[in-house]
Write a structure and sequence with these properties.
It is a single chain. With 304 residues, this protein is an alpha+beta fold. The chain has two domains: 163 residues, Uridine Diphospho-n-acetylenolpyruvylglucosamine Reductase, domain 3 (2-Layer Sandwich), CATH 3.30.465; 95 residues, no CATH class. It is 21% helix and 25% strand. The chain has eight helices and 17 strands. A seven-stranded antiparallel sheet has the order 14-11-13-12-16-17-15. A six-stranded antiparallel sheet has the order 1-4-5-9-7-8. The two termini are 34 Å apart.
């Protein structure tokens, strides 16, 4: 059964498109928790508000400017959740390609977005994707928009894939090798490692979680550790074991995923020339005048 929320989006998509306009440089502004608008460039905000929750189809429709925490609170009332990091706006998380800590089990954030209406550089509203998992076909433009930092289009409204809230969600810690845990523990939701200690999240039936924890000698804790900084690195998952060989510095690695949370930016080589050329061709097709979030570059914008 679908649930129509009492609130609706605070502006229509056509009004949003008119604000974006067609000529001058423009940037998208959310909650400023993931970079915010481009300095010195006119800023706009995406529509906000929850339109509907369809618990049977396991989707939620909302404005891209809606706070993630508001969406999670509304979904909790029907026993569901969405795999997007807490804090900030829905559109901000999607534009930055910021996956939740549950990525190991639930997949990357690009899998969450089913449909969007976005505003392009010509000031027109375009639809991408489909409203349910089963009717999405053809070229998946949604995946191209996720992680593009708003350089290809500004998300207006979105339909997101939801999932049931597990009966039990618990965190444990151990001194065991995190890569051994990944190979032996049944369906861990997250495994975090700082070079010395490993944290693991288990979801499911309480009895099953107890049995897995007892078999692995895991010690229950209140939750995951604090991240050592705001920077996200992206590494091949198989290279995470080499982090302990780097110069001393705090990090928290998501085992099996390749995301590393650190206090310093990731040292980066120049993008592969072929990848850069492909990116530039795509940008030229979507925004030939470079008016959307000018100066932002997804190739150096952080981990996915």
């Amino acid at each position: 059964m679908g649930l129509t929320m009492g609130s609706s989006m605070d502006r229509t998509l056509d009004e949003f498109a008119a604000i974006v306009g067609t000529t001058d440089p423009v940037s998208i502004e959310g909650a400023a928790s993931r970079g915010g608008a481009v300095d010195g460039v006119r800023a706009v905000r995406a529509p906000r508000g929850i339109v509907r929750i369809d618990a049977a189809e396991m989707v939620v429709e909302c404005g891209a400017g809606t706070a993630v925490d508001d969406v999670q609170q509304a979904l909790a009332e029907v026993g569901q959740t969405v795999s997007i990091p807490a804090g900030g706006t829905v559109g901000g998380a999607l534009a930055c390609g910021a996956s939740d800590t549950t990525r190991l089990a639930h997949g990357p954030v690009r899998d969450v977005l089913l449909q969007t209406h976005f505003v392009g550089a010509q000031g027109k509203v375009t639809k991408a994707g489909g409203p349910t998992v089963k009717n999405v076909s053809g070229f998946d433009l949604c995946r191209l928009l996720v992680g593009s930092l708003g350089t290809l289009g500004f998300l207006g409204d979105v339909i997101l894939r939801t999932r049931p809230v597990p009966r039990s969600t618990r965190w444990f810690t151990t001194q065991r090798d995190p890569f051994g845990l990944l190979a032996t523990v049944y369906r861990p939701v997250a495994i975090l490692w700082n070079g010395e200690t490993t944290w693991i999240r288990l979801d499911g039936e309480p009895g099953d979680v107890d049995a897995t924890a007892d078999a692995g000698g895991l010690v229950e804790v209140a939750g995951p550790p604090a991240r050592p900084g705001s920077h996200r690195w992206s590494l091949p998952p198989g290279m995470l074991g080499e982090l302990s060989d780097l110069p001393p510095g705090p990090f928290l690695a998501e085992i099996g995923v390749g995301v590393v949370h650190a206090a310093t930016p990731q040292p980066r080589a120049a993008p592969d020339p072929a990848v850069r050329a492909l990116h530039d061709r795509i940008k030229a097709q979507f925004d030939p005048s470079n008016r959307l979030n000018p100066g932002r570059d997804p190739l150096v914008g952080g981990a996915r």
